[in-house]
């Protein structure tokens, strides 16, 4: 083997050693990235905005894959966990779904039943009444036989379990007033209270809700359940 051949063999050997070194370096980088990133898991993010206190459905989310080590412990990895739940605040498109974003829909207690009535959006709801709220339900009735109109507390400490979507109401027969907007509100009530609410919705001039401060369960005294203008004299 002459000197030229020896130089060529040495260059080939050096090239082979460099190639092995480069390959080993690539493998080391890949191993390092894998050790830092780890395996990926399935999570879910919002595919649309969801208003606060609205029921959640699978169609509102899209599946994403994220490294397990970067995923928050509160992240939802199974959409079966959202069944029967509502959003606790407004959820924005693109947000990662987490367990502290949802809550159980308020449920009925033994002896209770659901009843829903339409409440005027401007005077009865004002956007502050949500599932889980406690409200007093008031009804106003016209005076009978020339008597004074009166306002009456129909049900005290009524529990709201659902708030529906804003709905346009057509004027009642004989009314010339323009169409109003109302919101269906669902309550959990005992039978007698449900009957009172149904009566008020059918025969009262107006039905209004008054939001009760959280933790205040004290009932209104009998002297404050019925009001006429003469009562202020």
How would you characterize the overall build of this protein?
The protein folds into 2 domains: 40-104, Antifreeze-like/N-acetylneuraminic acid synthase C-terminal domain (Type Iii Antifreeze Protein Isoform Hplc 12), CATH 3.90.1210; 112-232, no CATH class. It is 23% helix and 32% strand. It has 3 helices and 11 strands, in the order αβββββαββββαββ. The protein has helices at 3-37, 121-125, 191-203, and strands spanning 40-46, 61-67, 85-87, 102-104, 112-120, 134-141, 150-163, 167-169, 180-190, 206-211, 226-228. Strands 5, 6, 7, 8, 9, 10 and 11 form a 7-stranded antiparallel β-sheet that branches. A two-stranded antiparallel ribbon has the order 1-2.
Q: Give the distance, in angstroms, between the N- and C-terminal Cα atoms.
A: 127 Å
What count of domains describes the coordinates? 2
Estimate the mean pLDDT confidence.
78
Given the C-alpha coordinates, what overall shape results? Answer: rod-shaped
Order of helices and strands: HEEEEEHEEEEHEE
Q: Rg to the nearest angstrom? A: 33 Å
Strand content range? 25-35%
Count of alpha and pi helical runs: 3
Could you describe the largest sheet, including whether it forms a barrel?
Answer: 7 strands, antiparallel
Q: Which stretches of 5+ consecutive residues score pLDDT under 50?
A: none
Q: Portion of residues in helices? A: 10-25%
Given the helix and strand composition, which structural class is it?
alpha+beta
Q: How many strands appear in the DSSP assignment?
A: 11
